[in-house]
Design goal:
two-stranded antiparallel sheet, metal-binding, 128 residues, single chain, cytoplasm, mainly alpha, 6 helices, flat
């Protein structure tokens, strides 16, 4: 009896991981922040009928960037934990590009006030 050979069941695991990682991609929080501006909310809420979207694209949650089949499912979603968590995340202001550059060490250096150090012209005087 020889040694049993491994079956090698997971030979393509890397490709499966990549497929799953991008399959259910949703909009990022900064993109949703742009959607929540007053001029964009009306466009997202009142979309034209699209037969490719669930519920013909008429029941859309702007905060979660999701379409729903019916008004009942949409109202049920508004009560869910997932929706409430998303609302809490959206309360924070998104980072700007300037903040990201400063965190990476790129950008204008903060070297203190203009003019540098003030030089002392007097010598230290010792008292008896």
């Amino acid at each position: 009896m020889g040694r049993l050979r491994h079956k090698r069941n997971h030979h393509g695991i890397r490709d499966n991981y990549r497929r799953q990682r991008t399959r259910a991609y949703t909009r990022d929080l900064d993109q949703i922040q742009d959607d929540l501006k007053p001029e964009n909310v009306g466009k997202k809420k009142n979309q034209e009928i699209d037969t490719d979207l669930p519920g013909l694209g008429q029941h859309y949650c702007v905060e979660c960037a999701r379409h729903f089949i019916s008004e009942e499912h949409y109202s049920e979603h508004l009560k869910s934990k997932l929706h409430k968590r998303r609302l809490k995340k959206l309360e924070d202001e998104p980072y700007t590009q300037e903040e990201a550059d400063r965190a990476a060490g790129i950008g204008k250096a903060d070297n203190g006030p203009k003019g540098g150090r003030a030089l002392k012209t007097q010598d230290a005087v010792m008292e008896d």
